[in-house]
Design goal:
39% of the residues lie in helices and 17% in strands. It is built from eleven helices and 14 strands. Strands 1, 2, 3, 4, 5, 6, 7 and 12 form an eight-stranded parallel beta sheet that branches. A two-stranded parallel ribbon has the order 8-11. Helix 5 (146-167) links the parallel strand 6 and strand 7. Helix 4 (83-104) packs parallel to helix 5 (146-167), helix 6 runs parallel beside helix 8 (250-260) and helix 6 (192-202) packs across helix 10 (310-323). The longest helix has 22 residues, at 83-104. The radius of gyration is 19 Å and the shape is globular. The chain starts with a strand and ends in a 9-residue tail after the last helix.
Length: 337
């Protein structure tokens, strides 16, 4: 099977490609720019790259006509900046993907986000039927991009529902949380587990009087890839959460880093991580809820079983980062503070 992956050279897209290749399939990586990735270099004969943007419907159709994929994975993401860019990529881009898939009758996986749930109170798990909370005005602990990103993902999901119900297109829509792991792009290396590991490996300290009680729905990228693989294998049209079976506080993530790198000087004080007036910006810390996402639907419908707890995920990511320090070090991607 050939798989067309939009955003295929990005963090999640490239990992998805390797997951399908390891299962004996081929991947066509459709992206605006190429990127060198070690885990794709190892399997060069099993993928090819096509340059293009997801907002170009004609380019998408040419790719489909030429490559003849059996399915599409829409994995475009990244740090987009302005509200307009979020709309352009996540809404207009998704609309183009769906229209191209409709014209060629292709099963599609369109990645969504746990940020879609908005600002929720309480601590109980969030299911796919949980009513959305507000996303604006942004709270003091929300990243600057949280509101436009959440709104764009909500609009994209509405467009997905339109294509499901009006055209009968089969679309799986996994709601991802905070994904981490090998292949993170430059901006992702500045936040969360990536930042902690880079600081630890570089021998620098990260000790702050706040942030330890910030709740994060971390999920390792290989668990996400498995969820996408199982969705394609099932052929089912559904929206589902794709996370680990529990969330973690930042202080727990810091402890996992120190267990894997005993020399690490990573410590956070009590309280949540604010977004303003601090030397380290939140970056990826934008999931606006303290509630973990419930994976029951994905387990029931597609057999999803996440296996990477925080220690296993951090350990594997640390090993990869050390091996590829030439692309992760502060000499190449300077710390922002």
């Amino acid at each position: 099977m050939n798989l067309l992956i939009t955003g295929g050279m990005g963090f999640v897209g490239s990992n998805v490609a390797r997951h399908f290749i390891d299962a004996g399939h081929h991947a066509t990586l459709f992206d605006i720019r190429p990127r060198k990735l070690d885990y794709l270099d190892e399997v060069q004969k099993s993928w090819n790259y096509l340059q293009g943007t997801v907002t170009d419907l004609e380019a998408l159709e040419r790719a489909i006509t030429t490559e003849k994929p059996a399915a599409i994975v829409h994995a475009v993401g990244g740090e987009l900046g302005s509200a307009y860019r979020h709309f352009d990529v996540h809404v207009s881009g998704t609309a183009c993907i769906l229209e191209a898939a409709r014209r060629h009758d292709l099963y599609t996986v369109a990645l969504s986000s746990g940020a879609i749930y908005g600002q929720l109170e309480g601590n109980e798990p969030v299911t796919e039927s949980t009513p959305f909370g507000p996303v604006y005005p942004p709270r003091d602990n929300d990243a600057a991009s949280a509101a436009p990103y959440s709104i764009a993902k909500r609009l994209a999901e509405q467009w997905i529902e339109l294509y499901r119900n009006f055209y009968g297109l089969k679309v799986a829509c996994p709601r991802l949380v905070w994904v981490y792991g090998p292949g993170s792009e430059d901006y992702q290396l500045q936040g969360g587990i990536s930042l902690m590991l880079r600081k630890a490996i570089a021998g620098e300290s990260l000790q702050l009087p706040y942030g330890g009680d910030t709740f994060c729905n971390f999920v390792y990228v290989k668990d996400v890839c498995d969820a996408i693989f199982k969705a394609v294998a099932s052929g089912k049209s559904l929206t589902f959460n794709a996370s680990y079976d529990r969330g973690y506080f930042m202080k727990e993530a810091a402890a996992a880093v120190k267990r894997n790198i005993p020399s690490a000087k990573i410590d956070f004080g009590p309280g949540i991580w604010p977004s303003k007036g601090v030397p380290i910006p939140r970056h990826g810390i934008s999931m606006p809820t303290n509630r973990p996402t419930d994976n029951s639907l994905a387990k029931k419908e597609i057999g999803y079983r996440p296996v990477y707890d925080i220690d296993r995920g951090v350990g594997e990511y640390a090993d990869w980062m050390k091996k590829h320090w030439d692309i992760c070090s502060p000499d190449v991607v300077p710390f922002h503070f």
